[in-house]
Amino acid sequence: MKPVLVIMAPGFEEIELTAPIDILRRLDYEVVTAGLESRTVKGAHGITMQADSLLVDAEEKNFAAIVLPGGPASWTLRDTPRVKKLVQEFADAGKLVAAICAAPIALEAAGVLKEHRVTCYPSVKAELTSAAEVSGEPAVTDGSLVTGRGPGAALAFGYALAAALGTTEEKVAQLKADMCF
Amino acid sequence: MKPVLVIMAPGFEEIELTAPIDILRRLDYEVVTAGLESRTVKGAHGITMQADSLLVDAEEKNFAAIVLPGGPASWTLRDTPRVKKLVQEFADAGKLVAAICAAPIALEAAGVLKEHRVTCYPSVKAELTSAAEVSGEPAVTDGSLVTGRGPGAALAFGYALAAALGTTEEKVAQLKADMCF
After folding, report:
1. Which residues of B touch A33 (CB under 8 A)?
2. 3-state SS string over A78-120?
3. CB neighbour burial string for A114-131, b if at least 16 within 10 angstroms, e if fewer
4. What is the ipTM metric for this complex?
5. Full-prediction pTM beyond 0.95?
6. Which of A46, A153, A181 sits opposite B152 (nearest CB)?
C-alpha cells in the first residue's frame, strides 16, 4: 500500500491532524506528515509538532491519498500554489483527496469539488460553491473525496478515510471498539 | 485561574494529549505541557510534539489541575516517583487530578483512587483495585478526580475536565457545538 500524505501548515487544528494519523497508523498504513516551509509546525492551539518531512522532499514519493487538516491553516493551504497543484494531481489520478473543517476551501480553490457531496465547517459552507451538496454530517465519502466537519468529527473523518483506503467495515468497527469510540 | 499541568511522557496517546489541551485553550485556560526528561516527546503513533517546559521547571508554578494522557506512557507515569508525588500533592490539596485510558493506573499507584468512581481503558480495569467503581462511561467526574476511557473518548474527557474546572454547562455545550461534536 502506498503511503498517505498529510500536509502540516502553521495553524493546523491539532485534533484534526492527530486523529486521522493515529487511526491510519493503528491500521498499519504508512503516513508521512509534511511541513510547508519547516518541519517544526505550530498548531492553532499552541501545540508544536514535528513533521516527518518537508513537503518539497516528500513530493517524490508515490502516495495513495492526500489529507488536509483544517483550522487557520486552511487558508494557507488554499493559497499555496504547490498544495493546489498537488490536490489537482491527486484528483486527476483518481487518488483519495481528504479535507476537514475549513480545509475543503482548498479543494474548492483547486477545482476538485465539482458535483461531489461534501461536508465542512458550517462557517465556510457558502464558499464551497461548486459542490453538488454540502451536508451537515460528521464525515462524507463521495467517490475519491473524503471530507469532515470539524474537530469534534475528527475521529469520524479518520474512520471514513480508513474505509475509503480499503479497510474493511469489520476492521473499522473493531478499531472503533478498541479506541472506546 | 491557575494553569493546568499536562504531563508528556514518551509514548503518550496523541489524541488523548491533544483533545483536552485543545478544549481547555479554546476556553482560555492556561495549559502547560511538561516533558519528563526532554521537551521533545514522541507519541505512541510516531507524532513528535514539543512540551512547553520540562517537568522539573514547571513544578514551581501553582497549578489548578494535573492531567495524565494515556497510551504506553501510562506505565512510565506510574513508575516515575516525581509524578507519583505530584499526583499525591494535587490530591491532598483538593486540586483536580485527571487521567485517561491506561493512565488511571498512575492514580492507583499514587493511592488517590480510594472510594472514587472512575473509568479507564477496559484492559486495565482489574488494576484499579482501590476504586469504588470502574464504569464503562466515556468520562467520569467524581469529586476532584476526572477520568476518561480511551482515545475515542478524549473529547468527552476534555469537556468533563473543563466542567470540573468550573466552565458552565452552557459554555461547554456551546463549545461542543462550535467543534461540531
Report:
1. 47
2. HHCHHHHHHHHHHHHCCCEEEEECCCHHHHHHCCCCCCCEEEC
3. eebbbbbbeebbebbeeb
4. 0.97
5. yes
6. A181
